[in-house]
Specification:
- It is built from 20 helices and 21 strands.
- By secondary structure, it is of the alpha/beta class.
- Helix 15 packs across helix 16.
- Strand 17 and strand 18 form a beta hairpin.
Length: 618
């Protein structure tokens, strides 16, 4: 077998790859490349309730003895009275917002027995109290609220928060994780503003000795942990149910953290997330887990998270309402029509059945996601390919009849296919951008472009507005981002005319709780694989190649089989992920393809062929 040199670039038509650890043991390579602490593997797989219980929040601003907004909330409840106080919670319309809003509602309702809690639910994907108040300022409800809890939003909406205090006496508790803009942090630390603008955030410039990867739901959990401490030591008279504590809601923390794409490669955060997934307490999540697995981060990424996000993007008002009601255990019954098979006749017929709120919400989540998928597929088919690839960036225009809410989904599919930054904008040149990890913090880079109005969100997934497509392309072309080099794939092991073994696929599956989602799974490279045309099948866009006990599979494949086989066989390079697929009782060991390319064979005695592997795994 030809030995590969780790400091040489792949030559010819072969896929370029980079590798870190280069041993024969795939799992050992992966653990080294991910810098996973071997001593922590049990906690990384199963979570650790004791670790979560003892998690130190003593340095968190707003949750300690010097500045204690949790204590201020309890004092407000004590002064007004549990039966009299009116609390409003704004639910930010995304996965992190729904879970953080539900966590705060459930804790206050279950632990303290507060009955007058009002959920404020935006009608569309609009973020923050600023725009919500603008759209609802003439409501007669504002003067009824004593406190406003703002999880996962509004840290930069000081002007609105100040107006609510001035006009209605509402005290706002901001539990957020978004970057503080302009000079907002000065007001966070200002005693005058702290009367009504009480901020808990992991993005403050001071050292709080916690991860910056907590999202809104993670910060809400910390807030409730501080409430636990205070209610145990100083405010026992406010407790309605002493069995309730913040750790009961770690399942919501897990879903929200994963939904907001936090970096769960951080050891502490990974343990917290896996503790939640291994201890499902929420009724909706328990019902959902009967239909689809929530046992690891990837399961969540591919099941409930995109469903919640679809409700945020295209769901009706009733859908959003049903989702938050299910997350907050508000029992309801629904009369629904279901198609059932008549055992006597063998035919399907429509029957009326009763569903509880959790069964209904699970069905609704799947229905809205199917509608979104259909809409995205139609939009992609209608979008012109004329401007698909421009140098090293792809820009597409979304037809006006489609909501901009699906722009990010389309951009993500494009960047996944071409491994290039992708922008999808509407006719007003507003939309979403997505980029591969190797482009770093594209959001901040584009924020400095003269042709870009704004770039707001995460580093590789953000909302964007541009002034002119041609000006943007020209500026991108002249920047350091423009790069014609072929994408270099990070891999954990390379096979020459060979595939991962069944044992390796099973080991990858056995360790699935350790991988921090789809971007952290083991990746392998295959060079010069000899395949027979008889082993290849494409059906409904899905490519399958079966070699011995391994099924190579690629979804939405555009591989041109007919024009590339030399009579009966050919050679391919593959970058993919070993896995085990279990479907209706059938277990299949797979290599799920990220990229596949027709190439040439590799001969042991051909010294003219050299292959890559440059740099470290990232």
């Amino acid at each position: 077998m030809k030995q590969l040199k780790l400091d040489e670039l792949t030559q010819g038509n072969h896929l370029k790859m980079r590798i870190g650890a280069d041993g024969d043991n795939l799992i050992s390579n992966v653990l080294k490349n991910r810098k996973i602490n071997l001593e922590k593997i049990p906690e990384l797989q199963n979570g650790d309730l004791d670790f979560c219980r003892d998690y130190d929040i003593s340095n968190v601003f707003g949750l300690n003895e010097k500045h204690d907004w949790a204590k201020d909330l309890l004092e407000q409840i004590k002064t007004v009275g549990k039966d009299n106080i009116n609390i409003a919670i704004l639910v930010d319309p995304d996965g992190d917002g729904f879970t953080s809003g539900a966590l705060m509602y459930n804790y206050l309702h279950d632990k303290l027995g507060i009955k007058n809690i009002k959920i404020l639910l935006p009608l569309s994907k609009e973020h923050g109290i600023g725009i919500f108040y603008k759209n609802n300022m003439f409501s007669n409800s504002w003067d009824k609220f004593d406190a406003l809890i703002l999880p996962d939003s509004s840290v930069n909406d000081l002007s609105t928060i100040a107006s609510l205090y001035k006009n209605y006496g509402i005290v706002s508790y901001v539990i957020d994780h978004h970057i503080l803009e302009n000079n907002i942090e000065d007001f966070v630390f200002n005693k005058r503003y702290q009367k009504f603008f009480k901020v808990v955030s992991d993005q403050l410039s001071i050292d709080q000795k916690i991860t910056h990867e907590f999202t809104g739901v993670g910060m809400s959990w910390l807030f409730c942990k501080r409430l636990d401490e205070l209610l145990t030591n100083d405010y026992q008279e406010l407790v309605e149910d002493s069995h309730i504590n913040a750790n009961l809601y770690l399942d919501l923390v897990a879903i929200g953290q994963i939904s907001d794409v936090s970096d769960t490669r951080e050891e502490d955060l990974h343990i917290i997330v896996m503790t939640g997934l291994n201890n499902l307490y929420n009724n909706l999540l328990r019902e959902f887990a009967r239909v689809k697995s929530l046992s690891c981060i990837k399961d969540v990424q591919f099941s409930i998270v995109p469903m919640i996000n679809s409700v945020s993007r295209i769901g009706e008002k009733e859908d959003r309402g049903a989702l938050i009601q299910a997350l907050t255990n508000q029992d309801r019954e629904f009369l629904v029509n279901k198609k059932r098979k008549n055992k006597a006749t063998g035919h399907f017929e429509t029957r009326s059945e009763r569903q509880n709120i959790y069964e209904y919400a699970v069905d609704m989540l799947q229905r809205v996601k199917r509608t979104q998928d259909s809409t995205v597929k139609k939009a992609i088919n209608e979008m012109s390919d004329d401007n698909e690839k421009i140098d090293s960036v792809i820009v597409k225009t979304l037809p006006d009849k489609y909501d901009t809410g699906i722009a990010g989904l389309i951009a993500n599919k494009i960047q996944g296919k071409y491994h290039l930054p992708a922008l999808v904008v509407n006719s007003d040149l507003r939309g979403s951008a997505r980029s591969p990890r190797n482009y770093g913090n594209l959001k901040d880079v584009l924020s400095d472009f003269d042709s870009v109005k704004y770039a707001l969100g995460h580093e590789q997934a953000f909302g964007v507005g541009i002034n002119d497509i041609d000006d943007f392309v020209s500026e991108f072309r002249s920047s350091d981002l423009a790069n014609d080099d072929e994408y270099v794939y990070p891999v954990d092991k390379v096979y020459i005319n060979d595939l991962p073994t069944v044992d390796e696929c099973e080991m990858v599956s056995d360790f699935k709780q350790i991988w921090s989602g789809v971007n952290d799974e083991p990746v392998v490279g295959v060079l010069g694989l000899d395949i027979s045309k008889a082993k290849v099948n494409i059906k409904n866009g899905t490519l399958k190649i079966i070699i011995d006990d391994i099924e190579i599979v690629q979804f939405n494949s555009d591989l041109d089989i007919d024009n590339n086989f030399n009579r009966f066989s050919c050679y391919v390079d593959i970058v993919g992920k070993p896995s085990v697929n279990k479907f209706y009782g059938r277990t299949t060991n797979q290599l799920v393809v990220d990229e596949i390319r027709f190439t040439q064979p590799i001969y042991e005695d051909d010294e003219t062929q050299t292959f890559n592997f440059e740099g470290a795994w990232f």
